[in-house]
Amino acid sequence: MDRITLEKRIARRHATLVRLFVITIIMICLMILSLKYSIGWLKEITVMAISAFVSTILAIYMTREDILENDYAEKRDDYGVLTYEEGYRDVFRNKDSQIYLNSVDWEQFFYQAKEDKELFFVGISLYSFFDEPKMRNLLYELCIEKDYDVYIILANPYDREIARVNHAEEKSEEDELKQRILRTYKLFENDLESTYKEAKDKIHVWFSVTIPTALLIKSGKYMIISPYMLENPERTPTIIVEDSKSKSFYEKYSNYLNIIGKHHYTYEQLRKSVSTREFFTQSYTNLSDEFYEDMKNSEYVAVIGLGQKRMLGTLESYYRELLKKGGRIDIILTDPDGESTKMCARRSSGNRNDITGDINVHKEAINRLIDMKSDGDIRIYVSDFMYPYTMYAFNCKDKVSEKTKMYIWQTVLFESSSKRPGFLCEGKEDMERMKSYYYQFLELRDNCDLTKEITAKYDMEKNVKLRATKNVFKLGKKK
User: Fold this and answer.
1) Model pTM greater than 0.85?
2) 429: helix, coil or strand?
3) How many CA atoms lie within 13 Å of 207's alpha carbon, on the beta-carbon side?
4) What is the Cα–Cα distance from 298 to 322, expressed in whole angstroms?
5) Over 50: is that where the pLDDT of 466 sits?
6) Which of 140, 210, 249, 272 has CB 3.0 to 4.6 Å from 199, enough for a Cys bridge?
7) Residue 465 scores a pLDDT above 60
8) Between 245 and 18, where is the model more confident?
9) Is residue 298 exposed (0-12), middle (13-18) or buried (19+ Cβ within 10 Å)?
10) Which stretches within 267-421 are classed as H helix?
11) Do residues 125 and 180 touch, judged by C-beta distance below 8 A?
12) DSSP assigned state of 3
């Protein structure tokens, strides 16, 4: 039997009230008639009837809230809604949720999937959720010890919609949301390549073909759902649902998960479809926060560069800090007295005729680097090559490892340094490329006849006199 709709319930209540009101009016008329003609028995009957009808009218009138509450409760049952919270982080801080989910923490909640042994996590980045090692370790243990499969579905970091969401949420960095998505992937990649290799085939990190509209966590017959509202889902209303009838939230979102299971990108597939704009993410003149963080945490830095005056002005304090804490820097620059520096000057976007001035600027930068020897182990080399790129490689003192990260900026012709395309190499998928760059660095430093180590400062006074003589000569030719 189909349930009566709320509209029909309210209409039926209204019709009943109207009928009772009409009957009550008739009883009042009869009572007035009995008083006028002194009909005692009619008076007694009408008084009792009026009292009964008035009580019934009041009772029915007051049932409206009960009807609404009953309808709401039935709909909650139909749609499988158990309760609501202010954010998904508050789920296990509330006794109601603990009772409904039969869990007091995430670990017990994940055990609700002990029959199908599958956990699903859907979100844009989920970085704040998985950034805690304790949460990731719990999932690894479930995979290894309980034979669970864990499916993590993130947004496509290269989707243009991500950039729009990043702008709408007023993130501090232009590509902050994109970087958070990629960092989430890297968290699992690093763990699975080192400490938890046994769980590698049980943890599945995918990227959705469409941007997720809600944060969703599924365990057994329960789901936690927080719609995205252009702010952190930790602060958006959260619905807790369970498996109930076919039209429930649980059923609909289960279908959604099944679709994602068929249509998604793996990380390898994602990398193949990246455009150049999405690949060249590292600015040369506006270094990323990730670069500064890597510079701060590195124990060894290998550098190949042309002149590095700009970078030195930006990174000098980082250089000194790294050296003082026992780190080492090997830096290879173009030889200021060689043809390569002249070539660099001629291909720049500035004054291509002031080659002597560029050479002096280059030597001044090298002298500043030599001053840093008082802070620690920095080794400066020059070689007569115009390098096709600038490289900053972190944590590769003896070899390239999973901790190594390389920032590469291509050399440009006749354009400003802000136009230099830059990209980042890291992780297993870039290992061969990083080994190639590292090999080039070692060959240039250790096995090239054109390379020499600089241990003493250049005589800048001599260079200034030489430049002044050349300028006089040029003026004389003009005359």
Assistant:
1) no
2) helix
3) 19
4) 8
5) no
6) 140
7) no
8) 18
9) buried
10) 267-272, 276-279, 289-297, 309-324, 339-347, 355-371
11) yes
12) P
Pairing relationship of beta strands 264-265 and 203-208 according to DSSP bridges: antiparallel
The answer, yes or no, to whether residue 367 has pLDDT greater than 50, is yes
Helix, coil or strand: residue 336 = coil
The 10s digit of each residue's pLDDT in 92-138 is 777 766 777 778 888 998 998 988 999 999 999 999 899 989 999 99
Backbone angles phi, psi at 180, to 5 degrees: -65, -40
Predicted confidence at residue 478, as pLDDT, reads 45
Q: Give the DSSP H or E segment for 363.
A: helix 355-371
Count CA atoms within 13 Å of residue 365 on its CB side. 26
Counting residues of the chain whose pLDDT is more than 90, the rounded percentage is: 32
State the chain's maximal CA–CA distance in angstroms: 140
CA distance 299 to 387: 25
The dihedral sign for the CA sequence 237, 240, 244, 246: positive
**Residue 140: in which H helix or E strand, if any?**
helix 133-146
**Bridge-partner residues for 393, per DSSP?**
302, 406
Q: How many residues does the chain have?
A: 479
Both structure tokens of 216? 């969703």
pLDDT of residue 389: 92
Instruction: Kindly tell me if the per-residue pLDDT of 205 is higher than 60.
Output: yes
CA atoms within 13 A of residue 199's CA, in its CB half-sphere: 27
Q: Are strands 300-304 and 389-394 parallel, antiparallel or unpaired?
A: antiparallel
Radius of gyration of the chain (CA): 37
Angle between helix axes 355-371 and 309-324 (nearest 10 degrees) is 10
Instruction: Write out the H or E segment, with its range, that includes residue 42.
Output: helix 40-61
Cβ-based neighbours of 18, under 8 Å, separated by 6 or more: none
Q: What is the DSSP string of 90-128?
A: GGGGSHHHHHHHT-SSHHHHHGGGTTT-EEEEE-S--HH
Q: Which of 83, 221, 80, 131 is nearest to 91 (CA)?
A: 83
**Spatial CA neighbour of 377 closest among 318, 329, 319:** 329
CA atoms of 124 and 68, how far apart (whole Å): 37
Distance between CA atoms of 441 and 333, rounded to whole angstroms? 11
DSSP state of 79: H
Q: How do residues 387-413 score in pLDDT, each as one tens digit?
A: 899 999 999 988 998 889 999 999 888
